[in-house]
Amino acid sequence: MTDHPQDALVAELRNRVATGEVLRGDRLLPEREMAQRLGVSRGRLRQALDQLETEGALFRRRGQGTFVQPPPARDAARFKSLAQRVSPQEVMEVRLVVEPALAGLAAQNADAAMRELFAQATQATLEARDQQSYDAADDVFHYKIAQMAQNPLFLTVYESIRSVRAQAGWANRRAETYSPEVTEVLGQQHQILAAAILRRDSAAATQAMQAHLRCVAETLSQGGLP
Question: Which of 67, 96, 113 is the last residue of a domain?
Fold first, then answer.
């Protein structure tokens, strides 16, 4: 095995993830294959993966693998049929019930490390330069809130909603309806919401999420999509 200083290994792995060299679809290659490509032991590789996960660059789930975006619901396949039957408005109705509660819990329950990663995720939504990068950053932003609530049942509910949105036939039309002006407004709302969560103001976080989703719903009613 090649002697890789751990920091150099983390940097190399981060670069190979960014270029797609160690990806298969939306997840990383199996650990054994990655370790062989990098010339390191699986133990060293796991340490590097642990660090990237802590940084928020990766999402790991036992039994499913390591993902570069939030992972799909565990039984995502069974949501495919449902996704073809629900409308954007119906999805928004559920989001308006679930996500404000998640935001309130996130403000209460997130630890310091979670809040630091969430601040980075918030900044990423502001730095997005195109619709694709904004959508990816927005996905991570909302997923981090669900994680910070630290309620496994609530997270499962959120992942189910997210899976339905991703598989719906109208999901890929959002870019046509989100103008730069709308994206800018939503980014400002993200900042307000994030500030409430980071200062542990549960009531303000709940209200900010409600306002944010109502804006999304209004965009939806004018032809936009959640």
Answer: 67
